[in-house]
């Protein structure tokens, strides 16, 4: 029996939801606690690094952390090898995202990052991967497979990195005591920021 378009969409949504629920029940509390503590005591910037789909996720996470009070930006792993490494200092924390932990473009920046003295954290689904073992710390994000029928397109894995990163950003923001007033200061041009700023003036 041929599935309808709506049935197909719900099937793939259900696969992603199931993958996120699996991660929620298979977290390593010590890994989460350690990473949040590093971010809370960070003297430099929080930097995300990746390529391809993980690059897009990293850019979004950097924007989320920045908007919630943690100075953050994204560096493309390939561009880092061609000059953008100059953006990074020994005071920074670099989160490198790769589900397999074997993406060569994401592994390449590790030696220069070590020379700079930046702290590195792996966001990966493979705790035994080259990335996980080479970084100073690892946050394991377990994903059994992708949502598409071929099991190849970054779907569950990219959504997982986004969900985990967003949750950490929200937790850090809460622990820092980030307020609506702070949020308004970082969003002066948006409709929400304007609404909050007007509320302050009343």
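^ Assign residues to that structure.
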């Amino acid at each position: 029996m041929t599935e309808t378009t709506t049935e197909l969409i719900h099937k793939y949504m259900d696969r992603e939801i199931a993958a996120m629920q699996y991660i929620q029940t298979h977290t390593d509390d010590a890994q989460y606690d350690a990473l949040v503590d590093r971010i809370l005591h960070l003297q430099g910037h929080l930097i995300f690094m990746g390529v391809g789909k993980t690059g897009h996720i990293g850019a979004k996470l950097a924007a989320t952390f920045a908007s919630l009070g943690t100075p953050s930006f994204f560096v493309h792993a390939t561009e880092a090898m061609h000059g953008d490494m100059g953006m990074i200092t020994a005071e920074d924390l670099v989160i490198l995202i790769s589900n397999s932990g074997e993406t060569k473009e994401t592994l390449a920046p590790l030696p220069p990052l070590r020379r700079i003295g930046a702290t590195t954290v792996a966001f990966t689904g493979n705790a035994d991967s080259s990335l996980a073992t080479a970084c100073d710390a690892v946050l394991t994000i377990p994903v059994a497979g992708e949502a598409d029928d071929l099991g190849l397109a970054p779907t569950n894995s990219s959504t997982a990195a986004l969900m985990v990163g967003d949750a950490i950003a929200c937790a850090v923001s809460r622990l820092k005591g980030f307020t609506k007033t702070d949020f308004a200061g970082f969003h002066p041009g948006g409709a929400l920021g304007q609404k909050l700023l007007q509320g302050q003036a009343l």
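The first helix runs from residue 5 to 25.
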